[in-house]
Amino acid sequence: MIWVCSTCGNSSSQWWGSCKSCEAMGTMTQTSVSQTEFVEDKSRKSWIVPRKTDELGPQRLTDVNKGVNQLTWRIPLSGVFGAEVSRVLGGGLVPGCLVLVGGDPGVGKSTLLLQIAAMVAQGGDSGGPAPVLYISGEESVEQIGNRADRMGMGIGTEELFLYSSTDIEDILEKAQLLSPRALIIDSIQTMYLKGVSGSAGGIMQVNECTSTLLRYAKSTDVPVFLIGHVTKTGEIAGPRVLEHIVDVVLYMEGERYSSHRFLRSVKNRFGSTDELGVFEMSQSGLQAVSNPSEIFLSEQQLDFDVLAGLAIAVIVDGSRTFLIEIQALCTPGMPVSGSVTGIPQSRFNMITRVLMKQAGLKLQDNVIFVNVVSGVKLTDTAGDLAIAAAICSSFLESPIPNDVAFIGEIGLGGELRGVSRMEKRVNAVSKLGYRKCIVPKSAEKSLASLDLGGMKVLGCKNLKEVINTVFGSN
Fold first, then answer.
1. Contact indicator for 389, 309 with CB cutoff of 8 Å
2. Which is nearest to 222 in space by CA: 203, 243, 247, 197?
3. pLDDT of 209-222, one tens digit each?
């Protein structure tokens, strides 16, 4: 018998009060060693394609990619929707990859993968139609079909096959007969492997089912997608070792009452983890958003009194630039009752203290509310200046003109600091028709040579200069 940690998957020959690897308390569960040996025997099933003789030994690195065209190696995803997914995956779907997709219940994971399955089955730029197998352990094939019809996805391909099962052996036997271009498992927590102890969703079952699917993917070059449930803390349910087994981990994010969804990569062996995909949930499924900045900005108001407390920040997420709206409200009262949405509390505390100490604003007797529009989580420090400007606007009851944007990080001395990719941020602001952009003084000279179509770049050294520049004439 061995003891296995349900959090990280670390094993030990004897019981300990806490896991020696992750130091979690009370997570060691007893498991039979014979079960692990049995799983190894199961991995030699007929659906595992044997390697060629010349692939059994070590190979030279120069020989591995010989004759492989990197431009056509990945499976392309066509259309605007496919381009958005490909951006997050790193340029397309890699043959033999194992992709884990997590997210809150109802966020749209099944809808996303059903659309991806239809796209891969249709072929498009990847050589014509080919079978794709969608496995559901939670819904019947009739329920999946009704969901697709209800959402009006318009899936017309005859190469998308649905199958309802939770037995990994049965699933892979069906996949062997079909020889699919891609395999989708919805969800991994409902799957089980015969002979492995524990019920579906348990540590051993989830671990061994994922390992079996990994061996299938690597030996057949068939990409496999897994849907993973998340816990209350937002982590994928099951052992953390699950995230180490797979090649790619994607998280789908979105507020419950918002139609916008964000697909983010937190692990990617074949590309960057900085990319972000933006989608909108509609009656016909997920639609890619071609200009994400539009969803983060409210409609322009002619009455400037309405705009007090609003400021535009310019952030970069991956290779994309977004303009988002920061809202602030200052009202007299006890400051402990305020709230912050969309930015770290520690960052908000620092900015308000700097405004009081370095800019002379008497915010200590005010309740301050700060909100980032559309449920965006703002972690880019380039948004510091916009947060400070929104708070100043509400406190001074002086609106900010709706053609002004802010870029800059705030230091503890009230000074403005430069941020990365300033040229890219400023160019994005000018293309959207803004007339002024407030930036740190240190970045003003480097931006002077840019063709900004008449937009003025105003450099400021500190918060006092920003307040005088923006609110001095109001």
1. no
2. 247
3. 999 999 999 999 99
Query: Which H or E run includes 312?
Result: strand 310-317
Distance separating alpha carbons of residues 68 and 419, to the nearest angstrom: 39
Cα angle 98-99-100, degrees, rounded to a multiple of 5: 125
Is the preceding omega at residue 187 within 30 degrees of 0, hence cis? yes
CB 128 within 8 Å of CB 275: no
Asked whether the beta carbons of 458 and 437 are under 8 A apart, the reply is: yes
Q: What is the 3-state secondary structure (H, E, C) of 89-137?
A: HCCCECCCCEEEEEECCCCCHHHHHHHHHHHHHHCCCCCCCCCEEEEEC
Q: What is the pLDDT of residues 345-357, one digit of tens each?
A: 999 999 999 999 9
Handedness of CA 467, 469, 472, 474 (dihedral sign): negative
* Local structure of residue 192 (DSSP, 8 states): B
**459: enclosing H helix or E strand:** strand 456-460
Read off the tokens for 68. 């492989």
- pTM of the entire structure? 0.76
Full 3-state SS string of 345-400 = HHHHHHHHHHHHHCCCCCCCCEEEEEEEHHHCCCCCHHHHHHHHHHHHHHHHCCCC
Domains of the chain: 1-33 (no CATH), 73-290 (3.40.50.300), 310-472 (3.30.230.10)
CA distance 401 to 435: 10
* Mean pLDDT calculated for residue range 246-265: 87
> CA 418, CA 441: separation in Å to the nearest integer?
8
H/E element holding 325? strand 320-332
